[in-house]
Specification:
The structure is a single chain. The protein is mainly α. 61% of the residues lie in helices and 0% in strands. It has seven helices and no strands. It is elongated, with a radius of gyration of 17 Å.
Amino acid sequence: MEKAFQNPKFHAQLEMMRERTKYIDDCKKCRWHDVCEGGSPGHTHAEYGHMNEKDLFCDARMYWFDRYVEHQSRKLLGPEARIIDDVPALDQAY
Protein backbone atom coordinates (compact mmCIF):
# COMPACT_ATOMS: atom_id res chain seq x y z
CA MET A 1 0.00 0.00 0.00
CA GLU A 2 2.84 2.37 0.87
CA LYS A 3 4.35 1.89 -2.60
CA ALA A 4 1.06 2.83 -4.23
CA PHE A 5 0.97 6.19 -2.43
CA GLN A 6 4.59 6.88 -3.39
CA ASN A 7 4.05 6.02 -7.05
CA PRO A 8 4.42 9.01 -9.41
CA LYS A 9 1.30 7.86 -11.30
CA PHE A 10 -0.73 8.22 -8.10
CA HIS A 11 0.52 11.77 -7.59
CA ALA A 12 -0.06 12.63 -11.26
CA GLN A 13 -3.67 11.48 -10.96
CA LEU A 14 -4.19 13.50 -7.78
CA GLU A 15 -2.85 16.57 -9.55
CA MET A 16 -5.14 15.91 -12.51
CA MET A 17 -8.13 15.77 -10.13
CA ARG A 18 -7.09 19.04 -8.48
CA GLU A 19 -6.59 20.80 -11.81
CA ARG A 20 -9.60 19.41 -13.68
CA THR A 21 -11.87 22.42 -13.18
CA LYS A 22 -9.49 24.51 -15.31
CA TYR A 23 -10.83 22.52 -18.28
CA ILE A 24 -14.54 22.62 -17.43
CA ASP A 25 -16.13 25.84 -18.70
CA ASP A 26 -19.14 25.62 -16.35
CA CYS A 27 -16.80 25.30 -13.36
CA LYS A 28 -14.59 28.22 -14.38
CA LYS A 29 -17.53 30.65 -14.24
CA CYS A 30 -19.41 29.11 -11.31
CA ARG A 31 -19.86 31.15 -8.15
CA TRP A 32 -19.59 27.97 -6.08
CA HIS A 33 -16.28 26.81 -7.57
CA ASP A 34 -14.28 27.35 -4.38
CA VAL A 35 -16.78 25.32 -2.35
CA CYS A 36 -17.50 22.54 -4.83
CA GLU A 37 -14.22 22.30 -6.77
CA GLY A 38 -15.93 20.51 -9.64
CA GLY A 39 -17.76 17.91 -7.59
CA SER A 40 -16.73 14.29 -7.52
CA PRO A 41 -14.10 13.23 -10.05
CA GLY A 42 -15.12 9.63 -9.34
CA HIS A 43 -18.75 10.22 -10.31
CA THR A 44 -17.64 12.09 -13.41
CA HIS A 45 -15.21 9.39 -14.48
CA ALA A 46 -17.80 6.66 -13.91
CA GLU A 47 -20.34 8.50 -16.06
CA TYR A 48 -18.17 9.87 -18.88
CA GLY A 49 -14.98 7.80 -18.79
CA HIS A 50 -12.88 10.90 -18.05
CA MET A 51 -12.88 13.69 -15.46
CA ASN A 52 -13.12 16.82 -17.62
CA GLU A 53 -16.88 17.31 -17.26
CA LYS A 54 -18.94 18.70 -14.41
CA ASP A 55 -20.35 15.89 -12.34
CA LEU A 56 -23.93 14.67 -12.56
CA PHE A 57 -24.93 16.34 -9.32
CA CYS A 58 -23.73 19.82 -10.26
CA ASP A 59 -27.18 21.37 -10.76
CA ALA A 60 -28.52 19.83 -7.56
CA ARG A 61 -25.44 20.95 -5.63
CA MET A 62 -25.81 24.55 -6.88
CA TYR A 63 -29.50 24.51 -5.96
CA TRP A 64 -28.76 23.36 -2.40
CA PHE A 65 -25.85 25.77 -1.95
CA ASP A 66 -28.16 28.61 -3.02
CA ARG A 67 -30.94 27.45 -0.69
CA TYR A 68 -28.53 27.16 2.23
CA VAL A 69 -27.15 30.66 1.73
CA GLU A 70 -30.66 32.05 1.28
CA HIS A 71 -31.82 30.33 4.47
CA GLN A 72 -28.85 31.63 6.46
CA SER A 73 -29.31 35.12 4.99
CA ARG A 74 -32.96 35.18 5.99
CA LYS A 75 -32.04 34.11 9.52
CA LEU A 76 -29.53 36.95 9.80
CA LEU A 77 -31.06 39.68 7.60
CA GLY A 78 -34.77 38.99 7.70
CA PRO A 79 -37.38 37.27 5.51
CA GLU A 80 -36.84 39.51 2.47
CA ALA A 81 -33.21 38.47 1.91
CA ARG A 82 -32.67 36.89 -1.52
CA ILE A 83 -29.81 35.55 -3.62
CA ILE A 84 -28.93 37.75 -6.59
CA ASP A 85 -28.36 35.39 -9.52
CA ASP A 86 -26.33 37.72 -11.73
CA VAL A 87 -23.42 38.16 -9.32
CA PRO A 88 -20.18 36.92 -10.97
CA ALA A 89 -17.92 34.34 -9.36
CA LEU A 90 -15.52 35.87 -6.84
CA ASP A 91 -12.48 35.44 -9.05
CA GLN A 92 -14.27 37.25 -11.89
CA ALA A 93 -15.61 40.11 -9.79
CA TYR A 94 -12.34 42.03 -9.58
